[in-house]
Amino acid sequence: MQSVSANTYSVHFNDKAYTELNTHLEKANYSKVFILVDENTHQHCLPSFMSQIFGDYNYEIIEIEEGEINKTIETCVQVWHVLSELDADRKSVMINLGGGVITDLGGFVASTFKRGIDFINVPTTLLSMVDASVGGKTGVDLGSLKNQVGVINLPKMVLVISSFLETLEERQLHSGFAEMLKHGLIRDKKYWNELNLVSDFNKLDEFIYDSVVIKNDVVMQDPTEQNLRKILNYGHTLGHAVESYFLESESHKTLLHGEAIAVGMVLEAYLSNKLTGLSDDSLNAIKKTFINRYGKVSFTDEDIKNILTYLKFDKKNSHGNINFVLLKTIGECQIDVIVSEDLLYKSFAYYKV
Amino acid sequence: MQSVSANTYSVHFNDKAYTELNTHLEKANYSKVFILVDENTHQHCLPSFMSQIFGDYNYEIIEIEEGEINKTIETCVQVWHVLSELDADRKSVMINLGGGVITDLGGFVASTFKRGIDFINVPTTLLSMVDASVGGKTGVDLGSLKNQVGVINLPKMVLVISSFLETLEERQLHSGFAEMLKHGLIRDKKYWNELNLVSDFNKLDEFIYDSVVIKNDVVMQDPTEQNLRKILNYGHTLGHAVESYFLESESHKTLLHGEAIAVGMVLEAYLSNKLTGLSDDSLNAIKKTFINRYGKVSFTDEDIKNILTYLKFDKKNSHGNINFVLLKTIGECQIDVIVSEDLLYKSFAYYKV
């Protein structure tokens, strides 16, 4: 599979990924190679990853606890201390082997350690392959506020090795698939239609590639999210609020990121139908796709009220306005749409029926 | 006084500084203006600063505790939380009003909050005017490791208002003056000679300007410290180690940054005499200047041994080597000089006699 070139780095796939990594490590002459893992990727991904690296490098493995709940500054502090104790210097490199928590947190730790060392992302979940792998967003959560602290900084390279998906549970694959559906909705109706036919999650390689190309194309045109890049936030304004609320609320089970934005994409399709001309047919098709694949999450009136209070912390807002990315049609977006609170409540009513 | 233009921002002085700030705030239309202070600058600098800002902006004052001991990630976490609670968004700005702790920490907090908001530095100490004001280095300490976590990111503007120096104790002025002496040593013998004649710290305006020009010239040529910028680290390799050790050791009083690098500059002048051709006369002149102005710090053999263990954490090192910037003559440097441990011990012996 061909590599996808971003501004100053490339996304490499499968066998080619290992070849490129070996070439890079040999050339870069790093003083030390740190590999950041969690207990899952330590057990299920690290052995096969290491077996493909040749050359006698100075390795250290750093393991953190898995899960969004550990994507915190406190975990960063631990990793910064470990790096210091293990004599990491500015010529060290950090390889982030894991899902979005590992690549987001590891990217932030590397970008800020001694004011920045090289890092390489090796996403091991479908979600991180199609989302975190491209674009340079790094960061951690602050309490329940997602990605509140971070920087935009590019990895040296991204390696997508689809055999890691074999280690994932079905629920994790569905979560990543939601971001792929989003890529279709915001940018490519044909791709959306193709994805709707997918039932076998063992044959995703070509689709992963398509999603990386779509996201990369958007990010390359607008790396710092002034305009076009905002379309990647479709479903995320309400989706993040739902995710944050469920993460913090003790009476709700935690939703995976893709499960939360699946809700957000239905809610925001309703807003799109009311405000930016999305047709009734498209709205119904979108709702059907997501409810069929992800089921329906239950919200009480109290839940909805609480979720809407999270919106004011959304990074995309300014001057007290809530900005949405909405759909004009499937495949085309409108950015910077301001939505009334009343309509937000109505979107939940539509989701529930 | 003329402004000094850096890559994408300018350093403005005194009255012009306030004019430029007012113009910028009016044009930028920030959603909120956050001013970071410590208890000292809150009391002694904020009132006169605020009296010079016109326009009806949405202000919030954030106060942190003063001192290097509070230049930590824990303080950052507090400030990030306060920003979140006060509805800071991506269109907010942070004005850092204080010494190096405020500008370094505030710059890091702003650079990482929601992946980066604008910040403006208003240094209130001599040290921060001539050092932190230019170059975009932000960061905090990790335990006793100075600036171990940070990013390089440029402020929107820097305002040097020399009347703030009237609020400082003599010892603080001396600390800043050490960095100015360094600018002479590494880049400009004439400037070094002029500074040696300075006794009245009430008339520093022109010298501050000269130091900003020297530092800016170096940083502009090499913003990411690949080569030339390393010369700014003269005196800092050993100076930082001394500073860190005294900060952490309970049996020593804490040294100000300038006091520590004054020691470092004598030690590294000795190394320069042995390794890079600095003349005996220059070595003696350098020692005399610093001992006369800063006195002599006492070191036991145990102290020296401990100080040298800090060197391995220096950010400028890689592959286990300790890299020094040394002087060839007063006004000219050589970078990337490797020094044996034996010679490091001898430099302390020279300092002590």
From TrEMBL, chains A, B:
Keyword NAD annotated: yes
Gene Ontology terms for molecular function: 3-dehydroquinate synthase activity; metal ion binding; nucleotide binding
CDD domains: DHQS
EC number: 4.2.3.4
Pfam short name (any one): DHQ_synthase
Cofactor: NAD(+); Zn(2+); Co(2+)
GO BP, sorted A to Z: aromatic amino acid family biosynthetic process; chorismate biosynthetic process
Domain (3-dehydroquinate synthase N-terminal): residue spans on this chain: 62-174
Domain 3-dehydroquinate synthase C-terminal: 176-317
Enzyme superclass (EC): lyase
Assigned keywords, A-Z: Cobalt, Lyase, Metal-binding, NAD, Nucleotide-binding, Zinc
One Gene Ontology cellular component annotation held by this UniProt entry: cytoplasm
Superkingdom assignment: Bacteria
InterPro entries named among the record's database cross-references: Dehydroquinate_synthase, DHQ_synth_AroB, DHQ_synth_fam, DHQS/DOIS_N, DHQS_C
Record carries keyword Zinc: yes
Record's function text: Catalyzes the conversion of 3-deoxy-D-arabino-heptulosonate 7-phosphate (DAHP) to dehydroquinate (DHQ).
Annotated PANTHER family: 3-DEHYDROQUINATE SYNTHASE (PTHR43622)
Stated name of the protein: 3-dehydroquinate synthase
Organism encoding this protein: Cellulophaga fucicola
